[in-house]
Amino acid sequence: MFSLKMHFKKQNNSVIPGFGLSMGITVTMLSLIVLIPLFSVFLILSDSTFREFWQVVTDKQTIAAYKVSLSCSAIAAVINVVFGILLAWILTRYKFPLRRVLDGLIELPFALPTAVAGIALTTLYSGEGWIGGLFAKAGIEISYTRIGITIAMIFIGIPFVVRSIQPVLEKLDPQYEEAASALGASRSRIFFKVVLPEILPAALAGFGLAFARSMGEYGSVVFIAGNIPYETQIVPLIIMNKLEQFNYPAATSIALVMVLFAFVLLFIINLIQAQINKIARG
Amino acid sequence: MKRTYILSKRILALAIALVSILGTVTGCSDKASSSKDEKSSSETVSITNVSYDPTRELYEQYNKLFQEYWEKEKGQKAEIIQSHGGSGKQARSVLEGNEADVVTLALEGDVDELRTGGLIDDGWVDEFPKNSAPYTSTIVFLVRKDNPKNIKDWDDIVKPGVEVITPDPKSSGGARWNFLAAWAYADKKYGGDEAKNKEFLKSLYDNVSVLDSGARGATTTFVENKKGDVLLAWENEAFLSVKEHPGEYEIVTPSLSILAQPSVAVVDANVEKHGTGEVSKAYLEYLYSDEAQRLEGENYYRPSAPEILSEFSDTFDLNIELVNINDDFGGWAAAAEKFFEDGAIFDQIYQ
Questions:
Q1: At what angle do helices B87-95 and B108-116 cross, to 10 degrees?
Q2: Predicted ipTM?
Q3: CB B175 within 8 A of CB B208
Q4: % of chain B residues with pLDDT over 70
Q5: Does B208 touch chain A (CB under 8 A)?
Q6: Per DSSP, what are the bridge partners of residue B321?
Q7: Interface contact A25, partner B, CB < 8 A
Q8: pLDDT tens-digit series, residues B60-76
Q9: I need a labelling partner for A230 at 20 to 30 A (CA). Which of A3, A275, B88, B132 fits?
Q10: What are B259's strand-pairing partners?
Q11: Chain B partners within 8 Å of A246 (Cβ)
C-alpha cells in the first residue's frame, strides 16, 4: 500500500493537464468561499482594541459557554468514534438485508435541516417523549440539559466518523486478519494490533471533524439545550445573542476564538496523523 | 492536435468561469431589476412587510383586507410579501439589505435600530397615531388545565418548585416585555427598592428551566413538549395556544402587566428606491381603520381604538393595570441599557 503512495509521489508531471488554470480556479474559489469571509472577521474586529476583545472573550458567561461547548463536543466525538468504528465495521464486513438502506441512512444527518433534527430530538427526549419518558421515570432528564446537547451533537457528528473510516476498512484486506488468526492471535489482539492501527488515522480525522462540527453547531443544539447561562448555554448561542443586540464586534470576537479553537484542534489532529503515518512507515 | 485540445479545454474552463461570474452578478441584481419593473407598471404594486413571529396569522388576513381596499381606492392590485421571524433578527436582516418597504416589529427599539442605520427618517414614532402602534398586547401567564400550581399573580411564580418557561431577553423581544412586566410588579410591591426588585427577578429566573431563543420556541417547549408549569407569553400567543388545544390550558391575567406596543414604520430609504411610498404609508394607515382594528381584535391583539377594544371586553381582561415603557422605564433605549446590555441587570441576576 505504501509503495503505491510512493509511486504517485514520484510523478511530478500530473496526468491532469492545465495545472496553472486549475490552480487559479482553486485559489479563486477558496478565496471567495473561505478566505475572504474569514478575513472579514478580522476586518470587523480591527475597529475594537485588544482590551475590548479580551474583555469580551474572557467574560465569565462566555467562558462557561466555552466549557459547555467543548466538553459536550468532546464527549460526543468520543462516543461517535467508538460507535462510528462499529458501524463502519458492520457496514463493510457483513452482508445483511437492507445493508444499503442502512448505509444511506448514515448520511441523513447531513441532509436533514438541523432545526428539524433539533425539534425532533427535543420532542423525543423530553419528559413527555417516547425515549425521554422512559428516562424520566429513572429520574434522568435529557432534553434541556447537557445530556441533550451531547445527544444532538452525536447525531450531527456520526456521519463524519463513519464516512472517514469506511473507505479504509473497505481497502483493508481481510487476509491480514486471517493470517493473524492463523498465527494464533486472539480476536481482541487482532482488532487492536492489526485493524486498529490501520483505521486509526481515519478515525482521528473523523473525530476531529465531528468535534469541530459539534462545536459550531447551532441549529439543532439550540432547541434541545435549555440555554440557561452558566449551565446549558453554548458558544454559538452567545454569538447569536450578541448579534441580536446588534453588537457585531463582540459577536465577531467570540467567533474568532471559535475559529482558533477549530483550527488548533484540526492542526493537532493532523500532526498526530502525520506521526502515526511516520511510525507506520517505519 | 494536442495543442488545440488543450486550448479548447482552456477556453471551455474560461467560459465556465465567465458564465458563473455572470450568473452571480445577474443573480444579485435580479431583485433590483424586478422591483423596477413593478414600479413602471401601474397595475400591480408590490411591497414587502418584514414582521415578527406571532403576527403570521394576523397579516395573512390583513393583507387580503388591504388588497381589497387598495384596489377599490386606487384601482391597483397590491401584492404583499410577508416575512416573519424573531423581531431582532428581522430588523438585522433589513439592516443588512433585506429590502423591506414596511416593518411591523415587536419592539420600538428594533425599529429604532433601522433609524440609527439610516434607513428610517427621524421622528418615525409620530408618523402614525398612538406612537405608531396600531394594536397592543400584554404579557399574561399560560398555565396547564385547572391551574394545578394555583398561579394567580407574579408572587406565585417566584415560589420555589414552580417551573417557569420564558424566552431569553437577550435574543427575544417578547422576553424583554416579560422581564420588564415582572420588574414593574416588583417595583410596585417594594416601593422602588431596586435591590429587592433584583432579588425578586432572581428568584423568578431561578425557576426558569428553559430560556428559548424566541417566543415561538418557548411556546413549543411549554405546549408541545409539556415542559414547565407556567409560560410567560404574549397575550395573543396565549390565546392561540388555548384555541389550538381546547381544554388543555388556561390563561391567567396577573394584577399588573406591561403594555406592549409593537411598532410599525415605513422604511423610508427603501420605499424611495422602489417608488412605493404611497402604498406603504396607506398599508400602515389602514391598520387603524375600524375593519382592521376589528380583525386585530379577532386575532387577539388589543385594538388601539378604545371603542373597538370595548367590543372585545369578553375576550380581554380590561381591568389589568398596565405600565408603559415610555412613562415607567424612560423609553426603550434607556430600558435596554439598564437591563439587557452585556453586564446589565439581566446578566447580574445570573451571576
A1: 10
A2: 0.72
A3: no
A4: 88
A5: yes
A6: B256
A7: yes
A8: 999 999 999 999 999 89
A9: B88
A10: B138, B324
A11: 88, 92, 95, 113
Pairing mode, strands B102-105 and B263-266: antiparallel
A25 vs B227: CB contact, 8 Å cut-off?
A: no
- Alpha-carbon gap, residue B232 to B251, rounded angstroms: 10
Q: Which residue of A has its CA nearest to B93?
A: A244
> How far from the centroid of its chain's Cα atoms is residue B292's Cα?
18
Name the region of A203 (left: φ>0; alpha: ψ -120 to 50; beta: rest): alpha
The CB density around residue B153, as the number of other CB atoms within 10 Å, is 13
Query: Rounded to a whole number, what is the distance in Å from the CA of A125 to chain B's nearest CA?
Result: 9
Cell of B307: 371603542
Please report residues of A whose CB lies closer than 8 A to that of B224: 123
Judged on CB neighbours under 10 Å (0-12, 13-18, 19+), A47 is exposed
Which residues of chain A does B114 touch, with a Cβ-Cβ cutoff of 8 Å? none
- Judged by CB atoms closer than 8 Å, whether chains meet at A250 and B9 is answered as no
Which three cell numbers mark B302? Answer: 388589543
Distance CA B21, CA A250 (A): 34
- The single residue listed with the C-alpha cell 492501527 is A197
Q: Residue A112 in 3-state DSSP?
A: coil
